[in-house]
Amino acid sequence: MRILVIEDEAKQADYVKRGLSEAGYTVDVARDGIEGRYLATEGDYQLVVLDIMLPGVDGFGVLSALREKRNTPVLMLTARDLVEDRVRGLQSGADDYLVKPFAFSELLARIGALLRRGPAANAEATNSKLTISDLEMDLLSRKASRAGQRLELTAKEFALLALLARRKGQILSRTTLAEQVWDMNFDSDTNVVEVAIRRLRAKMDDPFRPKLLHNVRGMGYVLEERA
User: Fold this and answer.
1) Range of the structural domain that residue 62 is part of
2) What are the pLDDT digits (tens) for 120-133?
3) Are residues 34 and 108 in the same domain?
4) Quick one: 126 exposed, middle or buried, by C-beta within 10 A (0-12, 13-18, 19+)?
5) Which pLDDT tens digit goes with each residue over 81-140?
6) Residue 124 covered by a domain
7) What is the H or E stretch that residue 43 is in?
8) Which member of 72, 74, 109, 110 has the lowest number of beta carbons within 10 Å of its beta carbon?
9) What does the alpha-carbon distance between residue 223 and residue 52 come to, in Å, rounded to a whole number?
10) Is the domain of 139 the same as that of 217?
């Protein structure tokens, strides 16, 4: 799932992005209200984390513009624990509220709750179950199994497998995997993709038959059942 974080405090934005990325989400960051308003209304996001105090356009302005076009779940952040701010935000269409400073575990829990009940949940639920041979994945509960055995995957391993499963039969390059799973520009000196593929294969492919995760020399990797 893709999340937009609209936050002008660089350290706070980087902290939230890093934590959510490690939890398996794809995260974009806007540093001011003008950019945030554009991305929120024109982009394809399942949730927006929105700070109130923003340069250019404040969080209420961004929320108002978003609600004119979309019903994307919004979690508002503020450094001020004022009842007036919370009431205004909720009346303007915010789905939840979190006061800074906050524990990242609480942010993650609130995001999970919003995604489970948000408008994207019903649409996502119809496509949340993926099956390839005896590999089964539930994208909402973030669980995977083979031959009925639960696979203990890290957040990044699950995100990597989910990407490959969604595009089963398609060869995905290391560049594509690095960009979409790690949100990084591919560096030929970085072996993060190869290491992750090796660890994923050890958990979900090596102990089972048939083999599903294949290398395609000079091109990348593909998840598919082969005769």
Assistant:
1) 2-116
2) 554 454 457 889 99
3) yes
4) exposed
5) 677 777 777 888 889 989 888 889 899 999 988 888 765 554 454 457 889 999 999 887
6) no
7) none
8) 109
9) 43
10) yes
Q: What is the pLDDT of residues 197-220, one digit of tens each?
A: 999 999 999 999 999 999 999 899
pLDDT, tens digit (0-9, with 9 covering 90-100), for 17-30: 989 988 888 899 99
Shared domain for 89 and 149, answered yes or no, is no
Same domain, 76 and 140: no
Of the chain, the percentage scoring pLDDT greater than 70 comes to 91
Question: Tokens for 52?
Answer: 């109130």
Rounded to two decimals, the pTM is 0.60
For residue 82, being part of any structural domain is answered with yes
Looking up tokens 């994207």 gives 120
Rounded to whole angstroms, how far apart are CA atoms 146 and 213?
13
Instruction: Answer yes or no: do 76 and 143 share one domain.
Output: no
DSSP for 45-85?
A: -SEEEEESS-SSS-HHHHHHHHHHH----EEEEES---HHH
Q: Tokens 């991305």 appear where? A: 39
The pair of three-digit structure tokens given for residue 193, joined into one six-digit string: 């993709």
Cα separations in angstroms, 24 against 3, 88, 209, 224: 11, 32, 27, 22
